[in-house]
Amino acid sequence: MTSTTANRVPPCSLLTEVFHHPFLEEDASPANAEQRRLHHTLTTRATEVCMSCPHFDDCLETAISGHDIAGFVAGTTSRQRTRIRNLLHVEVKPDDMDALVGILSSGRQIATHDVVRLRRAHPDEPLDFIAQSLGCSLSTVKRHLRRARAQACEPTPLIPRGPSRGQLITAFESVTRMRRAAPAARAA
Ligand code: SF4
Questions:
Q1: In CATH, which of 3.30.70, 3.30.310, 1.10.10, 1.10.3470 is domain 97-153?
Q2: What does the CA dihedral 111, 118, 178, 93 come to, rounded to 10 degrees?
Q3: Does ligand 1 have an atom closer than 6 angstroms to the CB of 81?
């Protein structure tokens, strides 16, 4: 993998032991003190990774305005994303998982945003590459991309225009109480 390609790989796709842990992926609640410590450690690590991720702005926009997805995405839990949507008066349809479902080799279900995120990160790679990266079939990748295209082309979206990047970041900071560094500072 070249360094340029490596820079485009979403860091979460390489840190599966953190982002795919049930505490983050399924919003599972810790049941005791030991689990609460693990939950805190995982959340802290995932937050650090997201806050320095080069795909953060695209990822946050997709997760807020594009798909009602589960798991820890763009530094937010699904509950925090619901609060951000409420602040911004954004409504999204839940993904139709029955129609979209694909199963990773780990047994984890994949969602459209997994495929779209990798497609954006690797626009020049064949779809086979995405299928191999996710451990799913080529037809699953195509099905998710068709679904994403269909959603993008829907003639009567629930809102005429999504919130701006600035509005998204402001709402993110308000809900998470974290400061998003300016682009120049993030690139430094
Ligand atoms: S911001 Fe999005 S793409 Fe980047 S590490 Fe977090 S979840 Fe992955």
A1: 1.10.10
A2: -30
A3: no
